[in-house]
User: Fold this.
Amino acid sequence: MRHVRVPLGIVLLWMLVALLVPVLPLSPHAIDLPNVLASGSLDEWLGYDDLGRPILDRLVVGARTSLFVAVAVVGMSLVVGSLVGTIGAYIGGWTDFLLVRLIDVFLAFPGILLAIALAGVLGPGIENVVMALSAVGWVGYARLARAQVLSIKERDHVHAAVAIGTSTPTIVVRHLLPLISAPLIVEASFGTASVIIGEAGLSFLGVGVQPPNASWGSMIRDGTRYMLVAPHVVIAPGLTLMGVVLALNVLGDRLRDWLDVKRHTRMTGA
Amino acid sequence: MMPAVFIRFVIPRVLTAVAVILGVVCLVFVLLHLVPGDPVEVMLGESAQPADKESLRRALGLHRPLYVQFGRYLTDLVHFDLGTSLYSKRPISQVLLERLPATVELGIVSLLFAVLSAVPLGILAALKKHTAWDVGAMGVALVGVSIPNFWMGPMLIVVGALWLGWFPVSGRAGVSSLVLPALTLGTAMAAVLSRMIRSALLEVLTEDFIRTARSKGLSDWAVTVRHGLRNALLPVVTLMGLQLGALMSGAVITETVFSWPGIGSLVIEAIHRRDYPVVQATVLVISVAYVMINLLTDLVYAWIDPRIRLGARE
Assistant:
């Protein structure tokens, strides 16, 4: 477990801060006009944004936004994706054929393009961000789960379960899913990183989380207009976002080595 | 006689690609119907005149039953008719053709940058495995994967355009305006590629023929590059096709950051103008291009890999 203390600490801090938002004394919407675009000071470490709102408070609230979206999207994608992949591979035949074609169609949209289009059409808002990113996200898990199940479904213990009359849902849940969970967990840790970038990207493009709610992506978007006079309004949310994503990617790498999952490279990000 | 490789490899791939494109067409068609409420009202705004709404509804064929709409949509597509932009009132295919060269230019330059930086980085990391060089190169790659391009772009603008004044802030005017967008778009791909090259190379270097090459007394360089890299690049080629997808969706953000007049920024402009036919058409064109590129990579892969070309495998 080398070099995991720092990334693990960053990820835990992100989650802790996000969960504690309701009890922390934050004022992310408080406007302090004399301090518009003021840079960091002892009172307010990270300074103020273009409306005179404290950046640190908004970063903390943005952490909650990204955690919520990440948990919702990765959770939904993982459940839907692994079920679809497992069912296709285990049942086989026409079901599998059709599911594979469906997966192929979703994979034909490069990166988060489909999510951008969906979020654009559905209209802004955090629920639509979750829907749009889940619509793109489930496919990776489905493909992975299918490949994994194909490689284990002929094992003796599965045949034995069939022979003693175990029902298909029980076989899937008790005898297949536990064996394929390791690669899915690794995929989910990279997936979390890409969902965080995805949410921030959609919000950056103006089709994600809407003002006055804080998202790291929309903070970067708003900040770019004042970048020259007040670079801190862009640097702070960008470094935060990158720190969390980097930490998750490092953890994913370590997890992969640790769980000994066959290397397969994927790309996070937009 | 048709070569066996056609029957076994080429024809199935082409058929799959056609099926996928049909599926993509269906999904893109559905897109407009996912607009909450009445799409015509969303596009024109609530204060629009009923007569205008009616004429747009008729122009888009939305008053017809769904299957008729879909039939019309398909027929139009076959005739390369992508519809009319609500904003500029011009044929969308014309708008796309105007925007395409900028995106292709940016894509090619970014790809070149990615490959030219990833190959040396990957080789370096593999040759000096588990040394400071390896850790350094892979650290750079990890940062490259994790840096969001909508943040890297503005940072590059601050440094390269505002502080140093070497490059224009945005827009498309000459070679110097290409540098920052291409760096922004190419970095993530460079990072992923260098990691792939490193691992592919490390895997190949354990093969028997590498030991043979070494025992012949060949230099490290010859073993790694002539015998190792050539074999390691095979899987990298396939994955590069997939990475182009990330490049294409990255272009949407990068072009927006730099006001680069390509089809990526067109998607976002169209979304903000609620010009949904343009959104549909652009998403369709990008995805179809992506499917075609992947098909081509598959075929190129088959062609450069003698094991597939000569039919020993698959």
User: Anything to note?
Assistant: Residues 96 and 164 of chain B are 34 Å apart (CA to CA). Chain B touches chain A through 58 residues (CB under 8 Å). The longest helix of chain B spans residues 220-257.
